[in-house]
Amino acid sequence: MPRTQITRNDLSFYDTQAAHWWDETAKIYPLRRLNPLRFQYFDRFVPNWNGLHVLDVGCGGGYTCEFLAHRGAKVWGIDQSAACIQAAQAHADQERLPIAYQHGVGEQLPWGDRTFDIVTCVDVLEHVDSPTSTLAEIRRVLKPGGLFCFDTLNRTWQSRLVMIWLLEDLLKEIPQGIHDWKKFITPEELTQLLQQQAFSSISFNGFNLFGSNPLEYFTTLRHYWKTGNFRIRFDDDTSVMYIGTAKV
C-alpha cells in the first residue's frame, strides 16, 4: 500500500483552528503560555512597553497582540489567515482592547516606512514564503533605532526529532505537515539575512523549553505541552529553538 504523502508547511490548520483559538481545550492553546516565557527575554531589551507602537507579524488569533496590549503597548497585528484575523479582532473587541488587525503577509506589509517602534515575529519565520522579503519589509516599517524581536527553529537533527518526529508524528500534539524542516533557518543564515537588510546589534540565545537531551524531550514533552508548565532556559544551545533581537 503506498505511503500517504504529507504536505509540508501546511498552514490550513490555522484556518480550521481559528474559531477555537481562545478555547482553553484547543490544540493551539498551549502557544499562549509561551508569551510570558519569551518576553522574559525580550524585556531585557525593552524594559517598558507602555505606549510603544508594536506590530506583530504572523499574529494568528492574537495571543501575542493581547499580551502586549495588556502591557500598555499600542498594537497592530497581521496574519495570512483571514479566519484567524477575524477571530483575533472579535476577541479583542470582546475584551475591549484597541488592537488593529490586518489580513496580509509579511512579504508585503500594508504600512508606511518608519511606522513602528518594535516588530515582533514569533514562531513565524520558518513558515513564510520568503524570509528575505519578510525581513526587508520589517526593516522598512521600523523607525530608526527600532527593535526586531523574533524566535524561530534551527535546522538540525535535534529540531527534526523534537518538532516533527515527536510533536507531529509520535505524540500528535500538533498536526502532521505544519512544519517543513527544510524551511527552518540556522542562526548563521538568519544573521546573514539580517545583516543584508542593515540590521545591527544582532543577538540571540537558545530558547529551550523541554529539557537538555533527546531522552528528556521524550519523557517530558507531552506533560509540558498539556499543562503549560514549561521550563525555560536561555542559553547557548540553539539546536532546536532560538530567540533574539536586532536593531535598525
In terms of DSSP E residues, the strand content is 15-25%
Q: Give the structural class.
A: alpha/beta
* Global mean pLDDT: 88
CATH architecture: 3-Layer(aba) Sandwich
- Count the E strands: 8
The CATH class assignment is: Alpha Beta
Low-confidence region ranges: none
Distinct helical segment count: 8
What distinguishing features does this structure have?
alpha/beta, Rossmann fold, 21% strand
Structural account:
- This protein is of the alpha/beta class.
- It has a single domain, classed as Rossmann fold (3-Layer(aba) Sandwich).
- Helices cover 33% and strands 21% of the residues.
- The chain is built from 8 helices and 8 strands, in the order H-H-E-H-E-H-E-E-H-E-H-H-E-H-E-E.
- An 8-stranded mixed sheet has the order 3-2-1-4-5-8-6-7, with helices on both faces.
- Helix 6 (157-170) packs across helix 8.
- It is globular.
- The relative contact order is 0.15.
Concise summary:
The protein has helices spanning 12-17, 35-42, 63-69, 82-94, 131-141, 157-170, 187-196, 214-227, and strands spanning 53-57, 74-79, 100-103, 116-122, 142-153, 200-208, 233-235, 241-247.
Give the topology, please.
Elements: H1 12-17, H2 35-42, E1 53-57, H3 63-69, E2 74-79, H4 82-94, E3 100-103, E4 116-122, H5 131-141, E5 142-153, H6 157-170, H7 187-196, E6 200-208, H8 214-227, E7 233-235, E8 241-247
Helix pairs in contact: 6-8
